[in-house]
Specification:
Blueprint lengths: L9 E5 L5 E2 L11 H10 L5 E5 L5 E5 L1 H10 L4 E5 L6 H13 L6 H13 L4 H8 L3 H11 L2 H9 L4 H7 L6 H13 L4 H27 L3 E2 L12 E2 L3 E2 L8 H4 L5 E7 L5 E7 L8 E2 L12 H32 L8 H11 L1 H8 L4 H6 L17 H4 L4 H16 L3 H4 L3 H12 L6 H6 L10
Parallel strand pairs: 2-4, 3-5, 6-9
Antiparallel strand pairs: 1-5, 3-4, 7-10, 8-11, 9-10
């Protein structure tokens, strides 16, 4: 094995255009925009490894990306660490291998701390991004994370990614949600986005519930923490009563009355259901409504469990649908589609033609939204893809797939998990094969057995 002796090595500056590149084990040297921007802003900071040929030409063994980027950036000179004797071809391959293999990237926590330190040094977000060769949003998000105790603790103590830590800032102050999301990030990161959406939906529903509660309280109606049991004598539901004049009893009817109360429940859709009660209906002149003589039968424990599962899974489906649509939007923005995309389009067009065709007459607005087409929103029936293929002729395969996916998504409502359908199940299995992480409720719709607890 050829070794390099420091005593025979020299450090020189050489013009990148005059440097030759030795055969490299890396089959493709990718020069991304960030790396090029960094070289353009800072030059080549780490010397490349090379030697001189008999004619004096400098040949570089390790550092071809730096040389290529320097050429493209128009850098005048780069540092080259010249050594005598490079050994045989096996030595070349080994040196190129270990030079690339034994590297350890900075953690997101290290980057966050560094960007914050640079800001304290007086550099703006734009200046940091330009000099570091990274996106401005990355620097801005990192500094925001560094300024938030919850987020910075998550990224340093629990090894969350920058994006995950940034999301936690939304829930700063809600320790229970923060703990749950940290656990998911570390144990089941593929379900992180789903659990974030569940938390967002739950928070939105709670905000709507609180708004409803505040409005009822302002009318002097007290709020019940639980729905009265069938066996409770009081309070009684006012739906079974009417006013002395035979009118329906409403919130306004109960305003200011003693013994008026309400139980508020917000469904998965976000709508609030208000059940009004009164302690002593006779004291206020309320009369019992005429009934059909049918006796009310209380729910069994099994029915209660089924209803609880129904409510929870409806909430879960709503959150999963949001995450799934976001994933599909990113998926359809990729330059290349999976190799079996054409076969999938053909399969779903034939096996699930009803689901796909139902949306075509309405212009398939969901497909256009997933493709991020500007005129995606609008009246039903308009051609949302008009002009798109003319401007993007290479996107024909993407449009075909988007139209099929749009149809499948439009038909995949909450009944997909309650009564799994073969076509929907097959569709969900396909996108799972493409990298989408199915949530537990989606696995039910996909007819996939999952004995693991929800994470």
């Amino acid at each position: 094995m050829q070794t390099i002796s420091p005593s025979t090595a020299t450090l020189i500056e050489a013009h990148p255009a005059l440097i030759q590149l030795e055969t490299n084990i890396r089959t493709e040297a990718t020069i991304d925009a960030g790396f090029l921007a960094s070289i353009r802003a800072n030059g080549v900071l780490t010397p490349v490894l090379g030697h001189r040929n008999e004619d004096g030409t400098v040949t570089v063994r390790a550092g071809q990306r730096r040389v290529l980027a320097a050429r493209e950036a128009g850098i005048e000179t780069i540092p080259v660490y010249l050594v005598d004797g490079q050994g045989d071809d096996a030595d070349r391959k080994i040196q190129q291998l270990v030079e690339n293999e034994h590297r350890d990237s900075m953690t997101d926590a290290d980057k966050v701390a560094t960007y914050k330190a640079l800001e304290l040094d007086g550099l703006s977000v734009t200046a940091i991004a330009k000099r570091a060769g990274v996106k401005r949003t990355e620097v801005k998000t990192s500094i925001a994370v560094a300024d938030n105790d919850t987020a910075v603790a998550a990224i340093t103590a629990h090894a969350l990614t920058l994006d995950q830590a940034a999301v936690l800032m939304e829930f700063d102050g809600d320790d229970e949600i923060v703990r749950m999301l940290i656990e998911v990030a570390n144990t089941a990161p593929e379900h992180f986005a789903y659990n974030v959406q569940r938390a967002r939906d739950d928070r939105a529903r709670e905000a709507h519930r609180q708004e409803t509660v505040d409005a009822l309280t302002a009318k002097g109606i007290s709020i019940l923490n639980s729905r009265p049991s069938y066996y409770d004598k009081t309070p009684v539901a006012v739906r079974d009563y009417a006013t002395a004049d035979g009118e329906k009893i409403t919130e306004d009817t109960l305003t200011g009355l003693d013994g008026a109360s309400a139980y508020v429940q917000v469904y998965a859709s976000g709508s609030a259901d208000i059940t009004l009660y009164i302690e002593d209906p006779k004291a206020h002149g309320f009369k019992k409504r005429s009934s059909d003589g049918q006796a009310r039968v209380p729910m069994t424990d099994e029915q209660k469990t089924e209803r609880k599962t129904l409510i929870e899974n409806n909430k879960a489906w709503q959150a999963a649908e949001t995450v799934r649509h976001e994933w599909l939007t990113t998926f359809l923005s990729r330059k290349t589609l999976p190799k079996n995309a054409v076969a999938v389009v053909a399969e779903l067009l034939t096996s699930a033609y009803r689901q796909v065709s139902d949306t075509l007459g309405h212009g398939n607005h969901l497909a256009a939204q997933l493709m991020s087409i500007e005129n995606a929103a609008g009246d039903y029936g308009i051609n949302r893809f008009e002009g798109y293929l003319i401007a993007h002729p290479n996107k024909a395969a993407h449009v075909n797939l988007a139209v099929v996916i749009g149809g499948m998504e439009a038909s995949a409502d909450r009944t997909a998990w309650r009564s799994p359908r073969v076509a929907t199940a097959r569709y969900l299995q396909i996108i799972a094969d493409w990298g989408y992480a199915l949530s537990p409720v989606e696995k039910i719709a996909a007819m996939i057995q999952d004995d693991e607890p929800e994470g």
